[in-house]
Amino acid sequence: MNDYLKFEPSVKPLHKDSREDYWYLFKDNKLMVLKEKGEVKIPRWKDVDVLNISIYNIQSMGSYYNCNCKCGEIIDDINEENIEFLNLRTLSTLVDEESYLLASKANLLLNWLKLNQYCGVCGSKMYKKDSKFERAMVCSNCGNTTWPRTSPAIIVAVTKGDRLLLAHNKYFPEGKYSVIAGFVEYGETFEDCVKREVFEEVGIKIKNIKYFGSQPWPYPNSMMIGFTAEYLDGDIKVDGEEILHADWFTKEEVLGLYNKSISIGSELIEWFLKNH
Ligand SMILES: [Zn+2]
C-alpha cells in the first residue's frame, strides 16, 4: 500500500498509537513545527509529549508511511527554542511537498469542524458521525449531514506561439504577474470555466484546453485544477476590475518576472519554460 498510496485517509487510527506518529498541531491557524539543525520538521508524538500541553479537537487524519497522522489545536504558549509556528504559505517554502499537503489537509479538517458546529438547516448542535469510513458531521435534531468540502478553481497557462499570457491582478504586489485563475461557478464544467475566466479577464478566446494537474489550495479550502490552452482569437482587453494589465511574454521575459514556488501556477510557468 505504501508504495502506491503513501497516505491512507482514515477517520479512526489505522495503527496502534506510537511515539513516531505525526502530529499536525495548529495555534491561531499556524502550524507547530520542529526546528532541528536548521531544518523544519513535522513533530512526532515523542516531540509533542515532552511539551506537556493540552491538545483540543484531536482528529485522526490517516496513515502516512505506517504511522498515524493526527491533528489538533493548542492554546498554550510554548517557549522552546526548537519549536516554531508557521503559516502554511511559509511552510510550503521550507518542507517537502508531501508534508505541506498533509499540513493543508489538517488545516482543512480543523476549519471544517469549526464551521460546522451548528446545523445549517435547523441550528441545532452537530456531532461527529461515528464511522470508520465516513467523515461527516450530523445534526442532533434533524439528521442533516455535511462532509468536508473543497471549492474548485481553475488555473490556466495560455500560449500563443512562443509566448505565454500573464496578467497582473489588482491584489498582486507591484510587478507581479501570473497565469489566469478563477473560481468555478456552481454547476459549471472546468472547461467552460477556463474559457469564461480567460474571456472575462482578458477578452480572448482559446482552444485545445488540456488538463495539466491539480493542487489543494487551503486558503481557505480551494482546489486548483490546472490546464494548458492555446490562443484562438481576439485582442487582449483586460477587465480593469480584477486584472489591471495582461500581455504575451517571451521565455526570457517570463524568467525575469517570476519566482518559483510550490504552487501549481509556478508549475505551469515551469512547463511553459521547458516546452517553448
Ligand atoms: Zn438540523
Q: Could you walk me through the main structural features you see in this protein, from its secondary elements to its overall organization?
A:
- The chain has three domains: 7-114, Nucleoside Triphosphate Pyrophosphohydrolase (Alpha-Beta Complex), CATH 3.90.79; 116-148; 151-275, Nucleoside Triphosphate Pyrophosphohydrolase (Alpha-Beta Complex).
- The chain is 22% helix and 37% strand.
- The protein contains six helices and 16 strands.
- Strands 1, 2, 3, 4, 5, 6 and 7 form a seven-stranded mixed beta sheet that branches.
- With 276 residues, it is of the alpha+beta class.
- The mean pLDDT is 94.
- The protein binds zinc ion.
- Residues 119, 121-122, 124, 139, 141-142, 144 line the site of zinc ion (ZN).
